[in-house]
Amino acid sequence: MKCSWRDGNRIQLLENGDNYYPALYDAIDKAQQKIILETFIWFEDEMGKQLHQVLLKAAQRGVSIEVLLDGYGSPDLSEPFVNALTSAGVIFRYYDPRPRVFGMRTNVFRRMHRKIVVIDNTVAFVGGINYSAEHLLSYGPEAKQDYAVRVEGPVVDDILQFELENLPDNAPAKRWWQRRRHRPEENRKPGEAQVLFVWRDNDDHRDDIERHYLKMLANARREVIIANAYFFPGYRLLHAMRNAARRGVTVKLIVQGEPDMPIVKVGAELLYNYLLKGGVQVYEYRRRPLHGKVALMDDHWATVGSSNLDPLSLSLNLEANVIIHDRAFNQTLRENLQAIIDHDCQRVDETMAPKRTWWNLGKSIVVFHFLRHFPAMVGWLPAHTPKLAEVGPPVQPEIETQDRTEAQHSGAKP
């Protein structure tokens, strides 16, 4: 399928789980026909149990529900937890649920990283927020800073159609000569309340999200702000950021200063000299771990979604973003990100970047190319061909025993 820019949508920015979860649960409580939910992480903690309860209530009142979880991100949900949902009729699938080998997980690459919820054909949620308590501010210093959007309007039909075509699809991937490269969908009639749904897969849409970033940077005239948790893109995007800065665009990049994984900061620091020399302003978010994947340009363009700007998201993972053309939304996101820059970030200068020596330059080049290409090389291995596995409803032997006893008493065959 191919999505187009849709007019006449209602778009709401949701910051962190404190705003996201109540809005989502309210929409689920109002569902009448169908709910499709897919996510990378669903933990069986306080927040995960709340989601479990609202979905269970919806299923019990007759709403059709399909859930897709990533086998790597959500490997530890208990059988009773899942069985309660499947017993109520929820279709529950795992993406690439491979067994452990010597205690180690083998489904490391090509993760299902999307975070999408579609309710009936009226409302959808897209973003980077998973289902765990660590997305709540009450979690403490390790609470994640993140974003999602709630959308109503014509674009919901596109998101629903995407889900219906992709969730149960077990067709083999196309050969490389059968794949078609999609150009970024241009907004030929810019206006307000316009939304485009875009995604990345390992077939025809391998670089759609990255190409929208490149197009945005090429079109920028005044300002670009990118906030991305795992920032380690290829040369094309780095060049585009520097080129925009060199022609007078204020380019601000927000990355993790208190990362949840140390390697994240190591990778970003390799790029500091290159970006700073090109005029890009780099800020480290220091308040808590940054998990957001958002960007804006000038006074109308913005994106929110699940895609990081790193090798996994740009080369292997299944991702989804919305591109938004709306001045009010752009301003809301800009005020949020600028407040983060003003109050919670430290601007990176040359003293914070690795010293510019021949040794550091050579090391950076080797590490850069290794980190950029290693996931893609491993992803070609047959062992990582992903599949969907559905969890069936549990067998209920006590009901079977009761039926057999009743049949014997009545003289009928069980």
How do the helices and strands line up, and which of them pair or pack?
Layout (H helix, E strand, L loop, with lengths): L9 E6 H14 L4 E6 L6 H15 L3 E7 L8 H9 L3 E5 L20 E4 L3 E5 L19 E6 L2 H12 L27 E7 L7 H12 L3 E6 L6 H12 L3 E7 L5 H8 L2 H6 L3 E5 L7 E5 L3 E5 L5 H5 L3 E7 L1 H18 E3 L10 H22 L8 E4 L5 H14 L4
Parallel strand pairs: 2-3, 3-4, 9-10, 10-11
Antiparallel strand pairs: 1-7, 2-5, 4-16, 5-6, 6-7, 8-14, 9-12, 11-15, 12-13, 13-14
Helix pairs in contact: 1-2, 5-6
InterPro entries: Cardiolipin_synth_ClsB, PLD-like_dom, PLipase_D/transphosphatidylase
Catalytic activity: 2 a 1,2-diacyl-sn-glycero-3-phospho-(1'-sn-glycerol) = a cardiolipin + glycerol
EC number: 2.7.8.-
**Biggest pleated sheet:** 8 strands, mixed
Strand content: 15-25%
Gross geometry: globular
Strand order across the largest sheet: 1-7-6-5-2-3-4-16
Binned, the helix content reads 25-40%
Enumerate the spans where pLDDT stays under 50 for 5 or more consecutive residues: 398-414
Query: What is the H/E string?
Result: EHEHEHEEEEHEHEHEHHEEEHEHEHEH
Classification by helices and strands: alpha+beta
First-to-last CA distance:
49 Å
Extended strand count: 16
Average pLDDT confidence is 86
Per DSSP, the total helix count is 12
Rg over CA atoms, rounded to whole Å, is 23 Å
Membrane topology: Peripheral membrane protein
Organism: Kosakonia calanthes
Function: Catalyzes the phosphatidyl group transfer from one phosphatidylglycerol molecule to another to form cardiolipin (CL) (diphosphatidylglycerol) and glycerol.
Protein name: Cardiolipin synthase B
